[in-house]
Design goal:
- Helices cover about 45% and strands about 15% of the residues.
- It has seven helices and five strands, in the order H-E-H-E-H-E-H-H-E-H-E-H.
């Protein structure tokens, strides 16, 4: 009885691996759509949280304009209303160091982008640059495209669930874009040049 009682004092998610949710989506969301999109994202995150009450939750968002920032804001909203906020973490994986990322995302106006993400960064549990790994497609991509293609692969490998804020319109997949990520999740991708890769989502090497 004493042992059983002591077990009850342990946080209910301490012994469970985190369930990881990532986001990918459009950057240029129409302002009129933002409230509805935010509510739908929050509904999805709430469903995950309510369904996995005995599991820590990690949410991955690179904080690009549009869907990424909207997702991160809803993660913080979910955490603020949770009776157990410590089990909900906002993690920010970046394809390159933060100053360079802000310069690229800001398109010449890095200070504006920095101001938009500053409140989210302050409340994030971790901000980190993902490891540099070789991609099969790397030789045919520009250096900046490789960085974002690598980020999409990272999200696809590490997340059990990806929230795609996407219009669903097929087309040419930009490296690292939402369509690129969706196609990787649906069809798999080559992790390396070995024939045994066979487009499998194998154990992560980063």
């Amino acid at each position: 009885m004493d042992m059983q009682a002591s077990r009850l004092t342990v946080a209910h998610f301490d012994c469970a691996a985190p369930f990881v949710v990532a986001v990918s989506g459009h950057r240029n969301l129409h302002p009129d759509d933002l409230p509805a999109v935010a509510d739908r994202i929050f509904e999805a995150l709430t469903l995950v949280s309510d369904s996995l009450r005995h599991c820590a939750l990690d949410f991955l968002s690179p904080l690009a304009d549009g869907a990424d920032q909207l997702f991160a804001a809803q993660v913080l909203r979910l955490r603020a209303g949770s009776p157990d906020p410590s089990r909900i973490r906002l993690l920010v994986p970046l394809p390159l160091p933060l100053p360079e990322y802000c310069a690229q995302q800001g398109q010449g106006q890095s200070s504006g982008f920095e101001q938009r993400i500053a409140p989210l960064l302050r409340q994030a549990d971790a901000v980190f640059v993902i490891p540099e790994v070789e991609l099969d497609c790397g030789a045919c991509l520009d250096a900046s495209d490789v960085q974002y293609a690598r980020l999409a692969r990272y999200l696809a490998i590490h997340a059990q669930l990806v929230v795609a804020v996407w219009d669903g319109v097929p087309g040419q997949a930009a490296p690292g874009g939402t369509l690129d990520l969706v196609q990787a999740l649906l069809g798999g991708f080559e992790r390396n040049r070995d024939k045994r890769s066979a487009r499998r989502l194998a154990s992560p090497d980063f």
